[in-house]
Amino acid sequence: MKKHTMRLVGLLLAVIMLFTVVGCSNENADLESSANNNSVQNDTLSDSENNETQDENSGARVITDALGREVEIPAEVKTIVPLGNTPRMISYLGIADMVVGIEECEIATSPIQAYAYPHVDKWSNLPNCGTNSMGETAYYPEQIMIAAPDVILSTDTADVADNLQTQTGIPVVCVAQGTLFGDDYDQSLRILADVCGVNDRAESLIKFIDDSLADLAARAATVSDESKPTVLGAGATFKGSHSIDGVYTNYSVFEVLAANDVAEEIAGQGGSSGVMVDREQILAWDPEIIFFDSGSMGLINSDYAENPGYFEQLQAVQNGNLYQWPNSTWHWSNVEIPLVSAYYVGTLLYPDAFADVDFEAKASEIFEMFLGEPDYLSVLEAAGAGYGKVTLGE
Questions:
Q1: How far is Cα 334 from Cα 323, in angstroms, rounded to an integer?
Q2: pTM of the full structure
Q3: Could you give the CA distance from residue 46 to residue 157 in angstroms, rounded to a whole number?
Q4: pLDDT tens track for 55-67
């Protein structure tokens, strides 16, 4: 009996132990399940956080600049620091108000700097981000970082752009300096417009330029080569002002009019540029009409006062066929002034072909398109930089 009782007690203890083990096992399973659930929740939270970062990063885009550099920029660019020739271009694109830092050479003191002159009050109060004139280039990374633009715009080389991007941590987009009336200028406008979100404005501007050039060329095509007078662009502005021996060669203003330019294709000179020539060469050319840069008239008049006999050998001087136009160059070439100049020259060289052109109205149309300033011709005239006939020594 006692033995039977002991067996029952042992069996009962075994059953109790079995339930205890199962209970512990279930508790561990619950803990493991809870841990797994927490792990899933944490993973879900982590994925959510990653998606937020990706959403934020999706606010950037990659653009390929004119140098083939792939540059990541904000999806929406609101502020810029334009360097090199880009201040002129962004002014033409109507986005001068996006500028938060500027080179000191862009604080315009003359209306010849037409792209910057209307913005002098705003730009003069911005951080000075460098200089880029008279062949001297220096950028100030610290000032650019203070300005804190979304993007830096430049016409520099890849190594300069990469270095500036590394120094500032700000993306640098490069475009071509642009050839006056050239396709590379159109490309530059389009890239800058893409960066700054004004593509429609770029296309309108490019169409306006193309239409104007086509109109000029069509009018010039009605004039026979035999009836075209010989012309010279002198007192050219390049690295400063010059007297009569600083001349324009292959000048785009003359080229679009198919003018009889005596300085066309000077040996060793490619493209439109300003060059120094021997004064005897000018006498040999003896052009019928001479156009001077307005900013060089002081030098030319001083030169005339010292040596009137030289100038009086020229038929253009004898016949009173001397004219001035506004300088077209400030660091690089403007576009609006040469376009206005082309119409002015056209009315003088080919009066019949341009008989229906109201020069002042055409100038107003061009200045309004590029600068938003329809009366800019009056601004130039008030500064002594207008269009008109000149007499040496006066």
A1: 20
A2: 0.83
A3: 43
A4: 345 589 999 999 9
Residues 293 and 235 sit within 8 Å (Cβ to Cβ): yes
Residues 162 and 51 in one domain: no
> DSSP string of 240-272?
S---TTEEEES-HHHHHTT-EETTTT-TT--SS
Strand runs labelled E in the chain: 60-64, 70-74, 80-82, 130-133, 136-139, 151-154, 172-174, 230-234, 246-249, 260-261, 273-276, 289-293, 322-325, 329-330, 332-333, 388-389
Q: Judge if 189 and 77 occupy the same domain.
A: yes
Dihedrals phi, psi of 377, to nearest 5 degrees? -60, -40
The average confidence (pLDDT) of the chain is 87
> 45 and 114 in one domain?
no
The number of folded domains in the chain is: 3
Evaluate if residue 28 carries a pLDDT over 50.
no
Tokens 């008279």 identify what position? Answer: 134
CB 336 within 8 A of CB 343: no
Residue 84 belongs to domain spanning: 63-197
Instruction: Report the run of H or E that residue 36 belongs to, with start and end.
Output: helix 2-57
Name which of 204, 247, 220 is nearest 93 in CA terms.
Answer: 204
Helix, coil or strand: residue 326: coil
- Name the one residue in this structure whose structure tokens are 């600083």: 246
